[in-house]
Design a protein that fits this description.
Low-confidence stretches: 12-62
Helix content: 10-25%
Number of helices: 6
Strand order of the largest sheet: 1-6-5-4
Number of strands: 10
Order of helices and strands: EHHEEEEEEEHHHHEE
Distance between the termini: 33 Å
Largest sheet: 4 strands, antiparallel
Length: 257
């Protein structure tokens, strides 16, 4: 949702500013074990490597919003620094090998349960639609289920449902196949447009690696637009409560029945 992974070469000064972590035993089991504390919590970084590519690991939690700074010292003497910037402190950082998730993708084992997103070649649209039509859950809940479709958040769900003319609270099992194909096509459109505009930024936490905010928020048609006219038909956009959040929709374009 926010945050960056910044990768760069280290110079000598940067290397000297990082403290090495003890108890890294490459010869015994090839597993990195690194731990650090910032006075409030402890984070652990671990990972398996099948060769001697890395010879030193260091971790700091000193800077604001920088959850972890990992220095990887290669056997050839080249130092690489990976900074994990996480302003909302929801994230975790781990080093782990890739594994087959059953769909042909090579992904970290800890996220193997997360489904492909609609832009991935591994995305099986027919299978996703079949699961949607077998569910009594609302179509918005299904869009937000990362085990079914990944990458769709509250904002993009509302935008995609508006484009597909589907009311957010309709059960998946009551929606025609062609309408669900139209919905997933709308999700891909929203993704593509948002990516081309740098994402949806509402404040300074949502920035890219160059410190720039995305501006897709200027193109939002229904999300956050309650009591404003629908761009398609002019009907006032409504806001309804969805779990602890909100759903925005056009009552004319997205009929409940």
């Amino acid at each position: 949702m926010s945050g960056q992974l910044l990768l760069r070469d280290c110079d000598a000064a940067t290397r000297g500013s990082l403290s090495p972590i003890p108890a890294v035993d490459w010869q015994r089991d090839g597993v990195i074990h690194a731990q650090a504390r910032d006075g409030r919590k402890a984070d652990t970084i671990s990972g398996e490597f099948g060769d001697d590519r890395l010879s030193r690991v260091a971790l700091t939690l000193a800077e604001p919003h920088v959850r972890a700074r990992l220095q990887l010292m290669r056997a050839d003497g080249r130092a690489i620094e990976l900074s994990f910037v996480d302003q909302r402190v929801f994230g975790r950082l781990a080093l782990e090998p890739l594994a087959d998730d059953g769909s042909g993708r090579q992904v970290p084992g800890s996220v193997a349960a997360i489904a492909p997103d609609p832009l991935e070649s591994a995305f099986d649209e027919a299978a996703v639609i079949a699961r949607m039509q077998a569910s009594r859950a609302s179509i918005k809940s299904l869009l937000l289920d990362q085990r079914l479709v990944s990458g769709v958040g509250n904002i993009y769900a509302d935008e995609s449902l508006w484009r597909a003319r589907i009311y957010w609270a309709r059960a998946g099992r009551g929606i025609a196949t062609r309408a669900l194909h139209r919905l997933l096509a709308a999700v891909r459109e929203v993704f593509a447009e948002s990516l081309s505009q740098g994402g949806t930024s509402f404040d300074s936490l949502y920035i890219n690696v160059n410190g720039e905010s995305g501006y897709f928020s200027r193109s939002l048609t229904v999300y956050g637009q309650a009591d404003r006219p629908c761009p398609r038909c002019g009907t006032l956009i409504r806001r309804e409560r969805f779990r602890s959040r909100s759903s925005y929709y056009c009552p004319r374009c997205q009929r409940s029945r």
